[in-house]
Input
Amino acid sequence: MKVISIANQKGGCGKTTLAVNIAATLSNLGNETLLIDLDPQAHATFALGLSGKSSEHKTSYDIFRSRFNKADIDFDGLVISDREKLSFIPANMMLSAAEINLGGIDGAAAILSQTLAHPYFEKYAYVVIDSPPSFGFLTLNSMYAADVILVPMDLSYFAFNGINGVYRVASLLNRETGRSPSIFFAMNLFDSRSNFARKIEKDARSKLGEYLLSTKIRSSVRLREAASEGKTIFEYADESPSASDFINLTCEILVAESKKTNAIMKEFMLHAPEAGAVYVLGDFNNWQKTEANRLTKLENGHWSGHVTLRRGKYRYKFLVDDEWIHDPENRKVSANGYGTHDSIVKV
Output
């Protein structure tokens, strides 16, 4: 079984559209697939036509309720299997109670993963999880269970803020559990006619390298219509460009996850509690100041950001409120042609 988690702390980036239609693609390719709605807003539940019935059915909340009630789960009553090779666990607002009741308990982030280890789920080749727009208890469960984390990026520079968050949460989970899922990014709601869209893609490619998948999910009325009808894109318009986009994206995910990459995601960090803005610039991004290279300020006064680097040696510096400084935590420096020094990173 392979578990694919769709996650991003930013709302409105199309997580549910990806989750529903990637799951549908996998099932259309002949794989027994399970889609889990782990978002209290239950958008995936609505997108599969269960909007009026979710309160009458067991939901993903019952997975967590069974833990604090110390009760067995009725899997047959939980999983809906009314589509060929595509099963589904719906959600409702009660999921919000799971975080309140279990969020502070040791090992709570592993509840979903432990549930999927039950023999009942052995029949599924793939599990796709639609996560809520936050990095709280439910998304931690989604990421903990994942073999692959797919992060949708919409046409907004706010999408770059989510990149750092995903990697920091993944790093925390790795330290706590030893699990290290593959992380990929996909351009979603993409409008190729827009110059701004092409610039966003260029900046994202510079930052993420081969971790940004080539296939883009184009903005489409058909996708919105399908969701409003409670159908997957294949049930609604199987010969549409959107259906082709999802076939291409899903196949690319499967290929990318199975091969080794020649690049690593490097974290850059600087303690600058009084700074208004911090960028990391270097050979790896042609020393160009863009929002893609802006670091995110953390609560402890540190600024952090992630950049994809291929194997090699690079010069870099931080630009702190228009002042250049080298990395004070990196002893490897080299003189430059401006009478100062650059920090050196080798990967």
